[in-house]
Amino acid sequence: MPVSFVRRSRRLSDGQQRLWDEQRRRYLVDVPRAAASTSVDPAYRLDLGAVPPGQGPVVVEIGSGQGDAVVAAAGARPGTRFVAVEVYEPGLAHTARQAAEAGVENLRLVQANAPEVLASALPEASVDELWVFFPDPWRKARHTKRRLVDQAFLPLAERVLVDGGVLRFASDWEPYAEQVRELLEAASGFVRDGATTEDGWAPRFEGRVLTGFERKGTAAGRVVHDLAYARAPRG
Ligand SMILES: C[S@@+](CC[C@H](N)C(=O)[O-])C[C@H]1O[C@@H](n2cnc3c(N)ncnc32)[C@H](O)[C@@H]1O
Predict the structure, then answer these.
(1) Whole-number Å distance between alpha carbons of 117 and 192
(2) Which of 83, 93, 189, 209 could form an S-S bond across to 158 if both were Cys, CB 3.0 to 4.6 Å?
(3) Quick one: which residues bind S-adenosyl-L-methionine (predicted)?
(4) DSSP code per residue over 93-119
(5) Would you say 61 is a known binding-site residue?
C-alpha cells in the first residue's frame, strides 16, 4: 500500500533535540509499533481519558504539520481534548515547543501513520471532530493514489466519529478538494454539515488559523476549499 507521506530524514539540531526530549515526555503518546517506525500495533488502544482535562469533546487533527492549527485551537478551547497525529518528527517537536510556550495542556501528540490510528488505536465513536487541513496534494496523476483522503479513508473516519461528529477538510488543490467532496457526497455514512452551501463547499472554518501552507497556496493564486460533513447516525 502506498503511504501518503514521504519519509524525510531531516534531523533536529542538538538544541532542538534536547528540548524535544524534555517535551516529548509531556506531550507525546507512547505508541507500540507493528513493523515500521510509524506503524501502530493493532492491539493498541489510545486512552483518551488520559488526555487532559480527561473528559469533554475530542478533536483529532491528522497531518498536523508544525502544529499551528492544533495549538491555537487547544489554547482557545481548554475544555476540549486535542490529539494531533503526524509522522514528521521535526513537526511534532515544533508543535510541542509551541504548546509548551503557550502553556497548552489539553493536547497529546501521536507519531504514527494516521489511517492506522483511525483503524484501531482510537476507540470506535470517540471523536467529535476529525480535521484534515492541507493534506499533501500529490498533484501528479501517477501519485494521486497516495492521497490520504480517499475511498478507503472514509470508513476509518466513520468508525471513530460519534454520530453527528464532523469531518473537516481544507485544501488549496482544487482537484483534491473536488475528489473528496464527491466521495463524501456519495458516502451513505456522511451528510452535509449545517453550514455547507448548495454546491457542497463549507464556509471557511473559523476555528482554523492561517498556516504557512494556506498562505503559500493563496499567494500562488489558488483557492482554498473547505468541506464539513457530519457522520450520519448509526442505524
Ligand atoms: C502539507 S502538510 C500540512 C500541515 C498542516 N495541516 C498545515 O495546514 O499546515 C501535510 C502533513 O501531513 C503529514 N502526513 C501525511 N501523511 C500522513 C499520514 N499518513 N499520517 C500522519 N501524518 C501524515 C505530513 O508529514 C505533513 O506534515
Answers:
(1) 25
(2) 189
(3) 61, 86, 113, 136
(4) HHHHHHHHHHT--SEEEEES-HHHIII
(5) yes
* 121 within 8 A of 45, measured Cβ to Cβ: yes
Nearest-CA residue for ligand 1 atom 21 is: 86
Cβ(95) – ligand 1 distance below 6 Å: no
CA of 46 to the centre of ligand 1 (A): 20
Alpha helices, H only, 112-161: 114-116, 153-160
Return the C-alpha cell found at 69: 492549527
Atom nearest to 114 CA in ligand 1: 20
64-113 pLDDT, tens digit per residue, is: 999 999 999 999 999 999 999 999 999 999 999 999 999 999 999 999 99
Q: Domains in the chain, please, with CATH?
A: 34-231 (3.40.50.150)
CB–CB of 83/99 below 8 Å? no
Q: How far is the C-alpha of 3 from the C-alpha of 147, rounded, in Å?
A: 8
The residue behind cell 453550514 is 195
166: its cell numbers: 464532523
Question: Angle, nearest 10°, between helix axes 89-102 and 14-27?
Answer: 70
| Per-residue pLDDT at 7 exceeds 80 | no
Q: What pairing do the DSSP bridges indicate for beta strands 190-192 and 225-231? A: antiparallel
Query: Which run of H or of E encompasses 176?
Result: helix 174-186
- Report how far apart the first and last C-alpha atoms of the chain are (Å, whole number): 31
